[in-house]
Design a protein that fits this description.
about 40% strand, five-stranded antiparallel beta sheet, about 130 residues, elongated, 1 helix, mainly beta, 8 strands
């Protein structure tokens, strides 16, 4: 009787996937070759630019520098930090460089520990 029960359970399995399971899809991180899950927590930096100049924002991780994007003057913008820069907890710095030339000041953050899914706040103060 027990053997018959095992035979029935084994006969229920099939090589096909159930319709509920979906193929993994989404964009591919070209640096790692892994797929980026649409539901994965993204790591971001929220830049509060109180300055009168538009800024270009860079992220530094070790000696690696990556441009994250631009922030308009007197605006707050959320920028995504690429997953290729973050593996576990890493030490990062953020750099704001003015879009205009001629004696305008740049800003460099302190070193900040960042891990996947974090949101970092970066304040650029008002200056005349």
């Amino acid at each position: 009787m027990a053997l018959a029960g095992l035979a029935l359970v084994g006969g229920c399995a099939s090589g096909r996937r159930s319709p509920a399971s979906t193929e993994e899809s989404g964009p591919v991180d070209l640096n790692t070759g892994r797929r980026i899950s649409k539901n994965a927590d993204k790591t971001t930096v929220v830049v509060d630019n109180q300055n009168l100049n538009e800024m270009t924002i860079y992220a530094y991780q070790g000696t690696q520098r990556m441009r994250l994007g631009r922030v308009r003057a007197s605006a707050t913008t959320e920028l995504v930090i690429p997953a290729s820069m973050i593996s576990g907890v890493v030490q990062m710095r953020f750099y704001a460089e003015p879009m205009v030339t001629g004696g305008q000041r740049s800003y460099l953050s302190e070193t900040i520990p960042v891990q996947p899914g974090d949101q970092v706040d970066f304040l650029i103060p008002f200056t005349r």
